[in-house]
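Reopening: structure tokens for the flavin-adenine dinucleotide complex, inputs below.
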Amino acid sequence: MDKYDVIICGAGAAGLMAALVLKRKTHNNVSILILEHKDKPGKKLLVTGNGRCNFANDCIDEKSFRGEHPEFGYNVVEKFDKKAMFDLFYDEGVLTTSINGYYYPRSLQAQTVLNMFLKNDKNIDKCIHCNENVTDISKKGSSFRIKTDKGEYEAAYVVMACGGKAFSVHGSDGSGYDLCKKLGHHITRLRPSLIGLKCNGLDFKTCQGVRAKGRLTLKSNNKKVISEYGEIQFAEYGLSGIPVFQISRYASFCLADKHKTEIVIDLASEYEYEQVEHIMWNLVHKKKKKLPEVLNAFVPVKLAMAILKKENINPDTAKADRNIIQTLAGNLKALNVNVIADMGFEKAQVTAGGVDTNDVKNDTLESKINSNFYIIGELLDVDGNCGGYNLHFAFASAFLAASDICRKVKSKNDNKSGQNTDRKYKNTKQTGKGIQRRNRSHY
Ligand SMILES: Cc1cc2nc3c(=O)[nH]c(=O)nc-3n(C[C@H](O)[C@H](O)[C@H](O)COP(=O)(O)OP(=O)(O)OC[C@H]3O[C@@H](n4cnc5c(N)ncnc54)[C@H](O)[C@@H]3O)c2cc1C
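Re-run output (same inputs, fresh job):
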């Protein structure tokens, strides 16, 4: 059976960063095997940020991450903040650029980031076994036995970087949860996040393709859950766009709990209701505008038509009295739609839920249940907002885990070389030769 110092399960963002840090910090002096069941490493990384790879954000605080212990994500990224990440990227030849506070590689190509991991002097690409699926991990004394569909390996340290179960076409099929569960870790409830929501209560066919700025408020059993502002995309099935993504994990949990799940959209959030009514009344009665034109003063015409349809108002025959103006103003300020489903894990960017963060240490990502077993990236119960937070967490958790392994390997080596020195010292006493210098540390 082949033995390695470290086996990393999964060659995604987190697994590759762990390998890079291990190689950098030990000057290529640990044996690493990366097991990846897809035919190539980093498949999901390549599609992030529409192929541009958004890996950090200027706005980051405790609220950027969610999970049963939402503070965990922020505690981790604080220890490998964007400056530390950009310094590492720079050292590896990757320049960064900001677009409105969202950070990307300067090339605006995710491939540049993947190349940083694979095309360097550390031969990480040669450590990867592709098309090899990890099927079982067990403890064997102080080390681990890793079974795959192709063979069996032994390792002193294991890094679990299998991702979640979102967008499984790129590899993360949820198998990491079972592997961690078998070793005693608790898995929290899993739901898709950063995803569009299927809705009814509006004729979405009429307004599909519309993009409109607005404030969304998610309600569960009539109680406000969360509110987000931004550009909403109206799709044939319902709602999409960044503010919808941001609230989607909450909507998904509400639906799973069979709660009445609604979204109230304020399409004129910079105005008070009374102002909207007043403007509309004047447009109708002073400027002699028709109802679709009046609504179109606030929203795109297709959305105006969908609102009229929702209220069964025929714009050609309806009399624009106070009642009708109030109804339409009410829709602009609080357009109510029902959420009936999320678009599912296959279309989600991220998984909400995962390995309980209570089971790992937040400074090293080492399991509290199995020492020398590390769990990083999306596999953990940490889901970030849309905007670079998930990759930042994947990279930061990988950095901390790999640094801890390096520290342990170093202290093991120091102890060994210390023992050797002691032995040699004893020998020199006996033989009268000079004391040998300790091996220079590589760390
Ligand atoms: C379309 C899309 C766009 C996104 N855009 C962004 C963005 O711009 N910014 C951002 O921050 N986040 C973005 N994300 C989220 C981000 O990609 C993930 O959070 C991040 O990739 C997680 O990294 P990871 O290494 O933990 O998991 P992954 O990147 O999913 O990697 C896990 C790897 O493990 C492998 N694997 C799994 N199980 C096994 C097994 N049993 N045996 C062997 N191999 C296994 C998988 O094949 C995969 O290669 C996006 C996601 C999607 C789907």
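The chain has two domains: 2-191+348-410, 197-342. The pocket of flavin-adenine dinucleotide is lined by residues 9-15, 35-38, 43-45, 47-49, 54, 133-134, 161-163, 166-167, 171-173, 175-176, 349-350, 377-379, 388-391, 394 (CB under 6 Å). Marking as resolved unless the reporter disagrees.
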